[in-house]
Design goal:
Blueprint: E1 2-9, E2 19-28, H1 32-43, H2 58-63, H3 73-88, E3 96-102, H4 103-106, H5 111-132, E4 139-144, H6 149-161, E5 177-179, H7 185-203, H8 209-212, E6 218-219, E7 222-223, E8 226-229
Parallel strand pairs: 1-4, 3-8, 4-5
Antiparallel strand pairs: 1-2, 2-3, 6-7
Length: 230
Amino acid sequence: MYLLYADESGTTHDSNQQYFVLAGFCVFERQGYWISDQLDQIAARFDPADPVSVELHGSPMLSGRGKWRSYPKSDREKAIEDILQVFLQSHPSNRLFASVIKKTVVSPKDPVEVAFEQLASRFDRYLIRLHKNDNTQRGIIIFDKSTYETTIQSLATDFRTIGYSWGVIRNFSEVPLFLDSKASRLIQLADILAYAIFRYFEKGDSKFFSIIQSRLDSEGGIVHGLHIQQ
């Protein structure tokens, strides 16, 4: 089974932000431990006695909000880069997926709905490609519980029964699950991946996105894992 850990970056209601991003990465069920262990080691730089208490989130780390204020910016930026390198160096089957929505373009539609449809369908099609290569797998999407849970649960149910714009989701074993990011390094990684993509489109800052861009789901030179609506 493949697990897609996903999170959003940007908000739907802030008029000062142009973009909303929903992004995540899929990981084979037995590979998550290695990634979590690597992220624990990065967190330990900031609290060796209690690394579990250190939450890795892109925006507060870069801006120095909260407890991150006490650490030099260079250390915080290096930690973000190293976190992204952990994903970059992980197993090739771990793929990055992202939906980037310019909010004014889809208005009055809910950007969460548009982004989730794209993310879910692209993950589903990745599983279809695996099946065609004699590697049949099922998938589950796992979100931070602070994400738009009610909207996404409703959409996921509709996609499995009624369908989405290109068909019906066929390879998910369950509707999306929601975890507390405090308890999951993999959700924290999804947050930082989404933030890296958001900064690229919202701020024109490619520093972090350039590290992970090559891990967008692709096949035969065609990138399937990135949807941009702008």
